[in-house]
Amino acid sequence: MRVKMECATAGRFFGPSSSRLSNPRRRRRIVLNRNNGLSAHNLCSSSKFKIQAQTHLSSEVGIAKQGSLTDFGIQEFVWPSPTDEIPFWKKGFPSWDANLEVPSEVKKDSKLMHIIHVTAEMAPIAKVGGLGDVVTGLARACLSRGHRVDIMLPFYGCIQREQIDDLTLITTYNSYHDGKWIPTHAYSGTVSGIPVIFIEPSHQFFKGQHVYGGSYNELEAYLFFSRACLEWMQVTGTQPDIIHVHEWQTGALPLLYWDMYHYLSLQKPRIVLTIHNMEHYGECRQEQLNMCGLDGSLYATFDKAVDDRTVGHNPERLSLLKGGIVYSNAVVYVGIVNGIDTAMWNPSTDVFLPSKFHAQNFEGKKLCKYYVQRGLGLASGNHVPDTALKVPLVVCITRLVAQKGLHLIIHAIKQVEELGGQMVILGKAPDSRVESEFEGLVNLHNQGQSIRILLMYSEELSHLLYAAADFILVPSMYEPCGLAQMIGMRYGAVPVVRKTGGLADTVFDMDDEPNHEMANGFVFEGIDEGSLNRALGRAFACYRNKPDEWNGIVKKVMAVDNSWNNTAGRYIEIYESVRA
């Protein structure tokens, strides 16, 4: 499969036949979408996430008084320690959800639709990365505009049922796989205020302790899931206006829809595909595609699903992602800057924070910073709180892969330390060699009081780190959109980013005079260490030497509206353009 989307317009993906364009699936459009390139923190929700911090100063928003942390009455506060038996981010929070009521000020659309998202991930119960965040945020935004929205998700064995409201078995049916009809359960429930339909086969698929990495064949499992979703729609008579599929995992669904279920009973739906990460194509053998009831040999052509990278190989392979591109009515990849779910990511209501804050009063952020410093051993009880707070704190929350600028992340550790700051890295490396390199850095740095490298992913800890951070570092080599910089700003963390993709669309340099009104961070263009050094140097100088300007920047970035309210309308336009 050719990575560049330009080849999709050259005929190879779509086929030049004008007669085929009369098919409704051929009335299509390619939409360039700056979607998230993050992903693959292999996380599934568990009961340990229903937790509350050791103590909260108040449930009120923010801290009323200005001034130093010593004004907060911290003598009575129970501070965490790295020697605690239970890490501070695993204490008992009351629930996942903050304020998830649909905002009343959102204007309802006049032409309402039924939209079903078919996805491998959903935040927060089956979140691996940005895909889960985008699905949940977009679904909530469309609900708030008056549309009917459902999410269809595999019922992974790691999902904790107590995290689902009103979980009910609604359908038992059979779905085809590899010559057999597999008994399958469909459950309905509500997660974060969003209706979800969970698909649970009776055999081994989706059993395990994680979203990905089970003992079953993942590609075959998602082929089953793609057909099982359509089969459920058929047996229940469900005819949504839009079926929105995401990533290679559901790339077979458009093929199954147009070449099978559209000829059976599903006439109304149209298919939209969003590509979140072009790294993964869903490479598939013809005999594997046969397992879902399609003839794999029919798709081994340039205008259908052959993986261009394997042409001339023995055997040639198919790409589920390419097949999804060819068979969808609209494809969304770059051009739409995604939003963040401001119900889940809200420092004024966030259940994971020891103190709440907001753009009009962000004093509570100081307490969050000191709380994290104490909990990670970056400050001890012997420190005067205000002294610890003066140290700039850089946070990097990312998947540790080459795309994210690994060499710059590693260099930043040294540079931040030399500048007299502190840095916390939170993330996992899917490559064992990268994991080993970072384990070496853990052994080298984690005993001091400047650097903490946490080779894991924790939803709770990520909230705490965003709230504690003075800077959020995103030095990606490429980034279709990126959410970290937008979430960071929401929590008052000023972004330091490399100018690429969605980072260039959302972060504007403080020293760029022509765009001073938009300035909200520190930007560098090169991929070299010197470029990063200069950006960090400017950022630290502003933090230390210009306190009034710094407070103005924090207030400004917290007020930036990166919500889905702005972005969802673009998706609605796409849905409208292809609906029957």
UniProtKB/TrEMBL annotation:
- EC number(s): the record gives 2.4.1.21
The Starch synthase catalytic domain extends over: 114-334
A GO molecular function assigned to this protein is: alpha-1,4-glucan glucosyltransferase (UDP-glucose donor) activity
The Glycosyl transferase family domain, residue ranges: 390-543
Per the record, the pathway is: Glycan biosynthesis; starch biosynthesis
PANTHER family in alphabetical order? GLYCOGEN SYNTHASE 2-RELATED, PTHR46083
Q: Which protein is depicted?
A: starch synthase
Organismal lineage: Eukaryota, Viridiplantae, Streptophyta, Embryophyta, Tracheophyta
